Predict the structure.
Amino acid sequence: MFRAFAYQLMTEGFAAAAGPAAIPGPTLECEVGDVLRVHVRNGLPDKYAQAITMHPHGVRYTPEYDGAYMGDFTRAGGYIGPGEEFTYTWEAIPESAGAWPYHDHGPNHTLNSMRGLFGAIIIHPKDAPRPDVERVLFLHSLAPPTTGLKRVFQCINGCAYAGNTPTIEAKVGQNVALHVFGIDDAFHDFHMHGHRWHKDGGNFVSDNQTVGPAETITVRFKEDNPGRWLYHCHVMSHQDNGMAGFYLVTP
Ligand SMILES: [Cu+2]
């Protein structure tokens, strides 16, 4: 596993990290009608010291909480310098239901987002039943400028190749929801063996769905096919460079 940049889940008051830094960063989860208050501290070590932000998709916010660096027009949340803190306030309105990415949108957002500074916001409809198995899968690449390694790795959640990438587990009869995000400059094709799903909840059935930069698809099905399965990006060069994983279904 590679450690590039990663958001860290902090305890209240930022006394200590609540867990190790990871790619993706912590998944934020709430219901329609909730208000998200997200405390961010820039804890980058000296050798990476630079401003960062946290820019959300899908939720409602005012310009202060956009988390976007805009030169002279930058608002408070658009520049969190090294050691500084900022609290974002975002609203989960009815149109926010779904899964969305957040990512760095500071002055160096391209490189930092490619380094792994991103995560998921899952907003459930009010009082809706939750899936039995719910996972987030970020499709992205870690390239030599961000790792110092000689070759590119096509990753899922910061790792490359089945066995390193997330192994998803489910049982027959369970309701499964997989939120799949594209979070680099490429278009990916999420493919799952032995399963199919209604695209966007509609009538069109797929087992292979395109997910572009900062797009999310949600794959939902009721599990009915036990075994060890592959899931992978169907862009062949991505699959060959690591964008694949196991899905393990027990009877
Ligand atoms: Cu791909």
